[in-house]
Give the backbone structure.
Amino acid sequence: MWPRKPERFVSRITRETLALVLAGGRGTRLGGLTTDRVKPAVPFGGKFRIIDFALSNCVNSGIRQIGVLTQYMAHELIQHIQHGWGSFRGEFGEFVELLPAQQRVGEIWYQGTADAVYQNADIVEMHEPEYVLVLGGDHVYKMDYGTMLGFHVEHESDVTVGCMPVPRGQATGFGVLDVSDTGRVNAFVEKPADPPPMPGQPDMALASMGIYIFRTEWLLDRLRGDALDETSAHDFGRDILPGAVAEGCAVYGFPFRDPGDDRPGYWRDVGDIDSYWSANLELIGVTPELNLYDQQWPIWTYQEQWPPAKFVFDEAGRRGMAIDSMVSGGCIVAGARVHHSLLFSNVWVGERTTIADTLALPNVRISRDCRIRRAIIDANCRIDDGTVIGEDPAADAERFDVSRGGVVLVTREHLGQDRRQRPRHA
């Protein structure tokens, strides 16, 4: 019966799987947050990077052969991988390899998701995996890929697609699966105007999460054929999957569910400023959907060794406090009030400043007598004394970027500051 409640599944199958994390997208909808860094390298949740969630899912699932495919603005991402994910033991067959576009098949960059894998086909063959797991490095979620691998093997599938139920009206921006009661895919449609409904739920549709499991031999054969097709966009969602379904290959959809209560699992795209801001602030809640305190499924990352956060001064109008907030290591709240906000590592907030509904990314310095609300302050920004952000939309729009939802993005370019230099605390 499809679907059924998933179970943890770590076995020989996971050890025979190579994971390829696609981490080369520009992430242009995040505006200034991706001017000098690729989207998977964008900070998230106080101390992590977005890519840490996909990599942690691999490690926690028992998959320890991982390739990270990079392309645009990759320096910050490469540094993070080298510093935080370099502890694997090569003699045990474990690795996290960085795979930049090496132009093995011509002087071209990655042309699409399928082409990115094809350009690394020789590396896939060298590792001789039984299965290849392809996933994006730009989504925030916790998922046991072992369970999906078990489903893939049990159904003798050529391709298994991770999918999420979404309201049909919201599914027009996704690849959508039309599936039978057993989960076999009857059709795969990219961004349809009229999404096909889920079996038994006419108001919902199954949206692709961009997570795919392939039999290695089948995948490489398909990629070779696709590379020769001059009409192809060389993309899994546009070309490989629709073609496989049309030819009668065994393509199945795997519904992503929370193993604790069998509801649809937590998954966030964080593809634009509003979704990024809201997904971070969700973490402040008493019982957020994404539990960063889950010791059974930890999120691993590289973190500098900062001292504990500190709150100083206790006078009227000059009292260091944080209410309904998350404050990371290295932060100093010096006579300021922080409300419903998230301070990333090594943030300093000065006297008589008030902050509300705001993300302050790593190494931000906010000076005295500032008022800031509904904002994202990018890493390494220095906010001068008396700055007001988030109170006058017209004034904000003249200096900064303002999202559709009214969130103000402040970067060092906006402030005329050198992005490479960290501000010093007072």
In short: The first helix runs from residue 12 to 15.
